[in-house]
Amino acid sequence: MRRDKRQRGFTLLEIMLVMVLVSVSAIAVVVNLPTSSSDAAETRAQQLYQRLNLLHQDAILNGWDLGIRFDPAGNKYRLLQLTREGWQALEHRRIPADTELEDGLTLAWELGDGVWGKKDSLFEEGSLFDEEMFTEEENKDKEAPPQVFILSSGELTPFEVYIHPSSEAQGEQNWRVMALENGSFRLLKPSEEFDDEVL
């Protein structure tokens, strides 16, 4: 009686092939893991910076008057466009109207120190009109107006946006996006100081 001398098992080549496939799968999983809050803050700040540059160019080239409304909760913003019906959510082929930040991120903003932010105004703060006179005519579903503007003339409201991890106080870990009176934008890393000579 003859015995079959062939061994059942895996060859070295088969074992190496399986190891390569497992390694590639592990790399794919690691690449798709959620990033840290500081990395997410950087990504969102860069995204806002790129969007502002694109919107500023579109406003000038297409004659659009645009605006941004920041949510008081500090986790989202809405892009708006002035139409015949008033302010409406922006319809853009490459930029969504609404952007909500990931959990763990906070967005804060303030008007710039230029002309728009000066307190020595000829008028008292508030509306020039009697608002009570128009309350009946206002529609509750109407879009709230923006807080900052990007106009077709190239002018814009100077403002500064801070994006940072919610676990950190506003300060050292801020990514800052600045809109300047001259119509340009700056992206500043955490702890980076603004240098107006760079302009």
Automatic annotation (TrEMBL):
It comes from the Bacteria. InterPro entries: N_methyl_site (IPR012902), Pilin-like (IPR045584), T2SS_protein-GspH (IPR002416), T2SS_protein_J (IPR051621), TypeII_GspH (IPR049875). Keywords: Cell inner membrane, Cell membrane, Membrane, Methylation, Transmembrane, Transmembrane helix. GO terms for biological process: protein secretion by the type II secretion system. Pfam families: N_methyl. Gene3D superfamilies: minor pseudopilin epsh domain. PANTHER family: TYPE II SECRETION SYSTEM PROTEIN J (PTHR39583:SF2), TYPE II SECRETION SYSTEM PROTEIN J-RELATED (PTHR39583). This is Type II secretion system protein H. The gene is gspH.
